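Hi everyone,

Forwarding the result from last night's run.
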Amino acid sequence: MPIDHDDIEPRLSNAQDAFRRGGQISEEGLDVASADLVQLRKACRLLSGAEQLCEDGYYTLTIEAAFTSIERTLLFWLITEGHHDPSQPPQSHTTAINRSADVGFITEEVAMELEDLWNENRAHTYY
């Protein structure tokens, strides 16, 4: 029997209510007011978590965390330098890479290499 609206609607409503209410407790060390610093701290947490995931044999999650940490680090720099509005989420997984090349933080060559790595590794594990 397929999942229908009645099966999932109460759970979705509960999730929406939780997001609206807020009050969730941030991870220790992530409760900063600076949007750029939050990105950098998340990148560091992802790398730390990736190390443990790799040791435990979760290679797909390790790849995900590694790429996300690169994106977060680039986003940190873009926000810090005023090249990205922190209230606007990136449009794709490669937005921060491409924007970083556009503003000269990384070369086009590095951006292409990162995108190639993303396409060859993360995109295959992500979808």
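The two ends are 25 Å apart (CA to CA).

Cheers,
N.
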